[in-house]
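Pilot study result, target chain (291 residues):
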Amino acid sequence: MARKSVFFASVAALLGTVLGASVAPAAITYDDWFASIGSGTIQYPNHTTSPYQVTLNWGAGTYGHAGGGGEFLVKTAGGDLITYLANNITRNFTTFCLEQGEHISLASLYDISVDQVAYYGTNIKQAVALGSGDPLDASTAVLYGAYFDGSLSSRVGGFSYNANISANALQRAIWSIEDSLALGITVTDLLAKDLINYANALVSSVDRQYQYYVDHVRVMNLWSPSAADSPVAVSKAAQSQLMWFNTPTPALLPHTPEPASLAIWALGLAATAAYHRRRRSCHAKGLGPGK
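Predicted structure:
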């Protein structure tokens, strides 16, 4: 009996593997999804109940989630994954939230609007009335842009994809920038500080490389769908997330060396220059090779 049980269990496992492999999750490219939402032309004060809906979840392949934050896996209303190619790797559209004080229900449907500001919490009435909101910080755009294009792990030491500490650190860095979260001295928070320092340094650079990310990262505001609500109803406000705007397959921003790397590079240039000056001097005096 035990042998039969093992045999049937093995057959069942094999069938499950075969059937599971044949039923891959449905997916849509980021290009097609982005085109379907009108290339981000929807602005909240101008839209009613939007036909552009998504669900967010802590699905397989997402990490972090400490404090109820990201990574969040974004799917279409029909449950399709949204995929894109970045840094030669096919990635799923994952995102992070901007505020701690706002909440969503995982796997629920939400209307979306694509904006350059976050509409949230205590100032939503004022934001709608003024057609304004909380502008997305440039440092947040840098961090999410580098995360989205797959280059963040090469820009900040200690950050890695598919890791809980890194995902939590990125979420806490965003909360610190956007929501004034106080960071401590845990491993996660120290990495969050490194992420913030990198972003702030890039934003402060004279060559304005950061503008690339500012131009391509937007706020994906979520709104609870309800035909009975007016477009300005506070009850519709859910959460503000991040998304890539306009260029689904991002080009990698030229890497900016960290200060230590710049110093080493400068020393290397100085040593090389000194070496060549010495060789020219030696040749001028007839002391070159073979002399």
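One observation from the pilot: The radius of gyration is 25 Å. A full batch analysis is planned for the follow-on phase.
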